[in-house]
Amino acid sequence: MNAFEITGGIKLKGEITPQGAKNEALQILSAVLLTEKKVTISNIPDIKDVNKLIELLGDLGVTVERINKDTYTFEAKNIDLNFFESDTFKAKGGGLRGSIMIVGPLLARFGKAAIPKPGGDKIGRRRLDTHFIGFEKLGAKFVYDSKKAFFNVDATNLKGAYILLDEASVTGTANIVMAAVLAKGTTTIYNAACEPYLQQLCKMLNRMGAKISGIGSNLLTIEGVSVLGGTEHRMLPDMIEIGSFIGMAAMTESEITIKDVCYDELGVIPEVFKKLGIKLERRGDDIYVPSQKHYEIDTFIDGSILTIADSPWPGFTPDLLSIVLVVATQAKGNVLIHQKMFESRLFFVDKLIDMGAQIILCDPHRATVNGIDKKYKLRGISMTSPDIRAGVSLLIAALSAEGKSTIYNIEQIERGYQDIDTRLRALGAQIKRVNADAPSH
């Protein structure tokens, strides 16, 4: 098993460029199945979840060509629909949560699809009902084989429909949009997700010939077309990486410039970090974070303790709550972190408490952080990464801690962060990859 060994307490300095957005990649790559024409996509992150999906597309019969480190062309001219029945598909599709995203495009273009029950992070129950209910409203019929944990879908006659989503699911909205663009008639999706990643998908589909209006709002109208063409698309930088680097700079008292962030697409993210007292400046399309010895958490106007909670876009993304929680441990002041959207994303705080953080886990959704204002440093420990975002939060804690930390199960981190150790070393971090068995406890 691979692990990271980190010697903390070192100030970092320099420039770092965020990778392409993981959550956008899973949608955009699936959309290549909607056309037999060539689609060129750039700024693709070189991470396991994305590479697995590219491999799955190749197995389905898509001609995949790598142009350079982050640019590929895709041509989905000869799709092998029998691949769905293979053990290879069951194994690969079941191990990748993003595999659910190929269902919408395949239903739209071929009228049928199959999908094993997807995997992914262990962060509580993540329903797929939104996807399936949306497909059913468009006319798809599902048969679930509970013995094989497999869904077979028939969608030979998709028709536009009015769909009111029970939750503003990003992947659910994306999947329904991709199914609807080739359906007969008009589809209206209300309570649609409106994240920048989804806006990117809709803009790309429109360049391919789709007719989607209402982009950026929670009401999408899609007029079905008969065929889509090719296009070129560049993915946004990963906003979760950008937020992680802001937090890392504050925790380690580092002076860091985060390059090419597409600032206008970051929504409230910079403002939330400013509420923690972190100074940051916009410089063109870069974010400059100066070295800060102290940062103080705001209170509400009436003087009560600040609450930071996640909510659907344009609210604060749940993927950055664990970063905010870690950063708050070294701030001056108190904050209540309220994780509304997933059940068990706060369960990594026991490791931070072991490092010396003052945190009260109120329940599975809420944690109160008493910031220690850097009066003493966190101490290095051995720990295991439970999921992608918690893993990076622990990595940031380790970079700021006194002494050596070891993080096991780094495969979880590497599912979402490309060459993270190499890029951090370029800033001066003492981090190395080692082979080590995880502790038995």
UniProtKB/TrEMBL annotation:
Pathway: Cell wall biogenesis; peptidoglycan biosynthesis. Phosphoenolpyruvate binds at K22, N23. Keywords: Cell cycle, Cell division, Cell shape, Cell wall biogenesis/degradation, Cytoplasm, Peptidoglycan synthesis, Transferase. GO terms for cellular component: cytoplasm. It is found in: Cytoplasm. It catalyses: phosphoenolpyruvate + UDP-N-acetyl-alpha-D-glucosamine = UDP-N-acetyl-3-O-(1-carboxyvinyl)-alpha-D-glucosamine + phosphate. GO terms for biological process: cell division; cell wall organization; peptidoglycan biosynthetic process; regulation of cell shape; UDP-N-acetylgalactosamine biosynthetic process. One of its GO terms (molecular function) is UDP-N-acetylglucosamine 1-carboxyvinyltransferase activity. InterPro entries: Enolpyruvate_Tfrase_dom, Enolpyruvate_Tfrase_sf, MurA_subfamily, RNA3'P_cycl/enolpyr_Trfase_a/b, UDP_GlcNAc_COvinyl_MurA. It holds the Pfam family EPSP_synthase. The active site is at D121. Residues 7-421 form the Enolpyruvate transferase domain. It is an enzyme of class 2 (transferase). UDP-N-acetyl-alpha-D-glucosamine binds at R97, D319, M341. Its EC number is 2.5.1.7. NCBIfam families: murA, PRK09369.1. Belongs to the EPSP synthase family. MurA subfamily. Cell wall formation. Adds enolpyruvyl to UDP-N-acetylglucosamine. This is UDP-N-acetylglucosamine 1-carboxyvinyltransferase. The lineage of its organism: Bacteria, Pseudomonadati, Bacteroidota, Sphingobacteriia, Sphingobacteriales. The gene is murA.
